[in-house]
Amino acid sequence: MKKKHLCLVLTLIFALLLGGCASGETADKYVGDLITSIKKEDPSSLSSFLEQGISDENETYVLQFPDELKDSYLKFLQASFNAVEFEINGAKKIDDERYSVQLTFTPLDIEATTKDTCEKYSPAISSTDLNTEMTKLLEKATEAVKSSPSYEASTQLTLEVKKSKDGYSLDDEQLQKLFSATMDNIMAPYDSVCEILDAQDYLTSCLNALFKNDVAEYAKHTGEDESSVQSQLESSMYAPPEELSASYTERYSAALKAICNNCQYSVGTPKKQDGLFNYIIDVTVTPNTSFQSAMNELETGTYYSEEEVDRALVELMEKYAAAPTYGAQTTVTVSLNFKTLSAAGAEDSEITSLIDTILPVE
After folding, report:
1. Are 72 and 138 in contact (CB under 8 A)?
2. Whole-angstrom distance, CA of residue 47 vs CA of residue 70
3. Which of 58, 97, 268, 299 gives the lowest tally of CB atoms within 10 Å of its CB?
4. pLDDT tens digits for the chain (362 residues)?
5. Residue 293: how many CB atoms within 10 A of its CB?
């Protein structure tokens, strides 16, 4: 009986030892199965990883990542993750509740992989709709990931797998660690489109602030307070002539705002140049000649007092605000970079020339 009892005890101990080994193998298998499911099934496990990328981009640009783009971007990230091959090097027991699993893999460089695709797509951007343009690009970028992935140097990563009565699990911190090590420069395709459309939005916001009295977007780009921008416009752009009688100043400013609001322009897609924040942009303009028309008509009149001149000026401004006149449509090409922005107030600057074309005053 004693021998049988000893044999039974030894058998149980051996079974327990095998169980510990099997648990290690199960931790490996859990990680392997998890990687497979991320590659082949619902990509939602990549959501937190994408959200961090989106957060960084939303701090960089005024244009914000469209919510409707998230599904397409998750599928792109899933395809990128799928391009990485993993070797699972076994699991080691840390304690009763934790195992370490070591992976060997070659990380995917998304920026290098999609560089040519993004550069070829940029000139083809045809709208200001960030979601539409990005959806088109992601289709092409996904093909680049599948056909010509660019990898970094092979590396190893150790993940900590938790064990509970419900089985094995990888917490979000470990999961993000896996994704961050696996895929580099994940927002590169988004950058290639957003930076261009953000520059377009910036120039549009500058013109809208001047001519449409719409300062909200401009304030976002510059970080200025809306009321401060509005105050600057009121004291400069819409200010009446100093010699104008006080009884006509409000009507003059209102008429000038209406004339400006009738201005017609469309900012084209910026063409990226070498260097930081450096673009060439075509702006399609139909010159609003209303101010010129009012001044020309004023000069042909006969007046016998300053009050008559003031009244005639304001009435003519109101006339052309209600029935604006325009010149022939034209295209103005401007450089948008730090140099041209710093010189924007100069009489011979490209920005001043654009403004004078939109609303000629002489």
Report:
1. yes
2. 8
3. 299
4. 444 443 433 333 333 333 333 344 589 899 999 999 999 999 999 999 999 999 999 999 999 999 999 999 999 999 999 999 999 998 999 998 999 999 999 999 999 999 999 999 999 998 999 999 999 999 999 999 999 999 999 999 999 999 988 899 999 999 999 999 999 999 999 999 999 999 999 999 999 999 999 999 999 999 999 999 999 999 999 999 999 999 999 999 999 999 999 999 999 999 999 888 999 999 999 999 999 999 999 999 999 999 999 999 999 999 999 999 999 999 999 999 999 888 888 888 999 999 999 999 98
5. 19
Half-sphere exposure of 231 toward its Cβ, with a 13 Å CA cutoff?
A: 5
Q: What six digits make up the tokens of 272?
A: 């990226």
Instruction: Give the residue ranges of DSSP H helices in the chain.
Output: 2-40, 47-60, 70-82, 110-121, 130-147, 172-182, 188-211, 216-222, 226-235, 249-261, 290-299, 306-322, 338-342, 350-358
